[in-house]
Write a structure and sequence with these properties.
The protein is an alpha+beta fold. About 25% of the residues lie in helices and about 25% in strands. Helix 1 packs across helix 3.
Length: about 180
């Protein structure tokens, strides 16, 4: 019998639902919104599609570690009698869009940079609202969520954007699935 993740993915999907709702409130919402794996989110490009210039927003499971009610958001530093009591799950919210790219003989205008900065901050505001949505979705969750800083991404490859981390205390429910499989 297949056993699916009961800790990270449910939290990531819930955060994604909130982010999807909030990012669609910006003036020019991204075309692509979804979960992304890996250490860094690549802004993909083909001969027919460009995620950056079409707009990309994501939730990425970044890391998880053992923690507990008495130490969250810190990682457990010693073995706990009875095993892991909770998991600290860090999710990354991110968004990218096109940076202004004029002809080879020009540089972006002040107005183009202003519009790009406004779009970047609108995306950041959508991230903050998504966290509020996520916290409000479950009673008592506010004490189990630590919001990290928002950071701009380097303007590179014609893309600009930013990311924000959110660490959530998730359940330690995997142990009930451990052990040999039965037929």
């Amino acid at each position: 019998m297949a056993v699916a993740d009961k800790v990270v993915m449910p939290l990531a999907r819930e955060m994604l639902a909130c982010f999807d709702q909030e990012i669609h409130k910006v003036e020019n919402p991204p075309m692509y919104v979804g979960l992304r794996p890996g250490n860094v989110v690549a802004h993909l490009m083909s001969t027919a599609q460009d995620e950056c210039c079409s707009g990309l927003a994501w939730v990425r499971p970044a890391t998880f570690y053992p923690t507990g009610a008495g130490v969250f958001p810190a990682q457990d530093e010693a073995p706990i009698k009875g095993g892991t009591r909770a998991w600290g799950v860090t999710l990354e919210l991110g968004a990218v869009r096109c940076a202004p790219t004029p002809d080879a003989d020009d540089i972006p205008t002040t107005e183009e940079w202003d519009a790009s900065t406004q779009a970047q901050m609108d995306d950041a505001a959508a991230m903050r609202r998504a966290v509020c949505c996520f916290i409000d979705a479950k009673e008592g969750r506010s004490s189990r969520v630590l919001v990290g800083e928002w950071l701009p991404l380097d303007i590179e490859g014609g893309c600009l954007g930013g990311t924000m981390t959110v660490t959530v205390m998730g359940p330690a429910c995997d142990c009930s699935e451990a052990g040999p499989t039965s037929s």
